[in-house]
């Protein structure tokens, strides 16, 4: 009965248009009401929301969000695009490569797929359309490549997975995300290059070495943030939470003092936007933690584990089943609540079969990144289409081959663990 109430109430609330954070919290409360008094259920949900947010590692999320806001407005996107164009702009369909590489770099620096979609798409969509590229194709490239910023560190969602798993190291997850993120970007470049070649899109001019070097120098202060944040964490100089505060300070100096793209009077708006985004993310985390606790009390994770293992105890089959479930979940649920709700369900299953929690974290995040690009709730899809001023139905066709290569990358990451675990092992995590 409790499982039925949980599933039916959650789906019903989503269908009638209740925001997902409220849907998660209310369905958790309704589930508890089946077995305990109403007042106790309400109190328990409130307590679990507060307890779920009482984590030192979560302080990193608002800092990384603020750093992303500063980078989005600080002229970093334009410099990264110029640097990417100098590197790959001369190839067939070069602007598609530039779009992908710039999204990877900006997403990795800001830790936000939406920020990358908005900042890079706002510049690249116009440039690609001016050069004769199809608007829908430009938007599709921008949308899919922006999600690599959630895999390549620093990444807020990897911090969320670390919290949900209770055992996975944030530093190990950050290191583990590099090769899978680069792999996804490479596959997207291959697919975009083939599409561009088939449609005879223009080839950019080869830049002189001196010009390439100049663009590299312009972009170097932005790229150096990755070295400061990740290098400091790996070297043990500071924690991921402390690194997030350093990222804010660095982004502020870069955008306000060095690049001078942000005026001091604009900081109020930037802080307000960061606070709004933070409140949304933390509300999702709080209600998701309450739902996870309700499911744990009702033994749902154990029952799901037994159900999956009753189908097969073969690791390959189980991972395929979990990937299929997560692909379906990603279509209807945002990545943050999906990670918080389904990590306690699936992690015990895969660890029982010998899968490393860090490896599974990258599998889960990469899988759910695909859902960000799909209707009806794909936030990156909506932002990308809005920036490109194009309807969702128009962008679906060029998205399909890009989805295919993302799924291929997902399968490789799933069944070739060294892609994920090699770097953490090299650095002793």
Walk me through what this model shows.
Helix 8 (135-146) runs antiparallel to helix 19 (379-388), helix 8 runs parallel beside helix 20 (392-415) and helix 16 runs antiparallel to helix 17. With 429 residues, the protein is an all-alpha fold. The protein has 21 helices and no strands. The model has no long low-confidence stretch (mean pLDDT 84). It folds into 2 domains: 1-54, no CATH class; 55-426, no CATH class. The protein is globular and about 70 Å long.
Secondary-structure map:
Layout: H1 2-15, H2 20-33, H3 38-53, H4 60-73, H5 76-88, H6 94-110, H7 113-130, H8 135-146, H9 156-165, H10 170-176, H11 178-198, H12 209-234, H13 240-258, H14 267-297, H15 300-311, H16 315-332, H17 335-352, H18 357-371, H19 379-388, H20 392-415, H21 418-426
List keywords for this structure.
2 domains, single chain, 21 helices, globular, 429 residues, 79% helix
Beta fraction: under 5%
| Number of structurally distinct domains | 2
Q: Given the structure, what is the number of helices?
A: 21
- Strand elements, count: 0
Based on CA inertia axes, which overall geometry fits? globular
User: How many whole angstroms does the radius of gyration measure?
Assistant: 21 Å
Mean pLDDT metric: 84
Structural class: mainly alpha
What does the largest sheet look like? Answer: none
The H-and-E topology, N to C, reads as HHHHHHHHHHHHHHHHHHHHH
* Helix content bin: over 70%
Terminus-to-terminus distance: 43 Å
* pLDDT < 50 runs, ≥5 residues: none
């Amino acid at each position: 009965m409790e499982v039925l109430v949980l599933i039916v109430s959650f789906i019903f609330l989503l269908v009638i248009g209740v925001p997902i954070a409220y849907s998660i919290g209310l369905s958790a409360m309704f589930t508890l009401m089946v077995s305990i008094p109403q007042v106790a259920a309400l109190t328990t949900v409130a307590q679990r929301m507060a307890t779920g947010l009482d984590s030192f590692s979560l302080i990193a999320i608002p800092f990384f969000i603020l750093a992303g806001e500063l980078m989005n407005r600080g002229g970093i996107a334009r410099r990264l695009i110029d640097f990417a164009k100098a590197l790959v702009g001369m190839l067939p369909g070069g602007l598609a490569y530039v779009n992908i590489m710039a999204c990877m770099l900006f997403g990795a620096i800001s830790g936000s797929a939406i920020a990358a979609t908005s900042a890079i798409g706002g510049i690249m969509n116009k440039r690609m359309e001016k050069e004769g590229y199809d608007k829908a194709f430009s938007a599709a490239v921008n949308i899919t490549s922006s999600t690599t910023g959630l895999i390549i560190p620093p990444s807020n969602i990897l911090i969320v997975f670390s919290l949900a798993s209770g055992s996975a190291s944030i530093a190990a997850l950050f290191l583990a995300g590099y090769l899978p993120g680069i792999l996804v970007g490479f596959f997207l470049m291959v697919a975009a290059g083939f599409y561009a070649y088939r449609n005879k899109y223009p080839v950019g001019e080869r830049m002189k070495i001196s010009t390439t070097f100049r663009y590299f120098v312009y972009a170097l202060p932005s790229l150096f943030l990755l070295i400061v944040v990740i290098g400091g964490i790996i070297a043990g100089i500071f924690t991921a939470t402390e690194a997030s505060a350093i990222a804010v300070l660095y982004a502020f100096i870069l955008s306000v003092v060095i690049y001078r793209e942000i005026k001091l009077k604009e900081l109020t708006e930037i802080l307000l936007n960061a606070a709004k985004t933070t409140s949304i993310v933390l509300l999702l985390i709080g209600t998701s933690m309450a739902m996870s606790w309700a499911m744990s009390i009702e033994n749902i994770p154990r029952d799901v584990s037994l159900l999956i293992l009753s189908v097969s105890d073969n690791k390959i089959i189980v991972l395929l089943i979990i990937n299929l479930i997560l692909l379906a979940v990603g279509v209807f649920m945002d990545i943050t609540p999906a990670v918080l709700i389904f990590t306690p369900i699936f992690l015990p299953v895969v660890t029982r079969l010998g899968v490393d929690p860090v490896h599974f974290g990258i599998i889960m995040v990469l899988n759910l990144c695909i859902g960000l690009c799909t209707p009806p709730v794909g936030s990156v899809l909506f932002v990308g289409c809005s920036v490109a001023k194009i309807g969702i139905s128009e962008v679906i066709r060029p998205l399909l081959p890009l989805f295919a290569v993302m799924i291929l990358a997902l399968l490789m990451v799933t069944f070739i663990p060294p892609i994920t675990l090699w770097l953490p092992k090299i650095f002793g995590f």
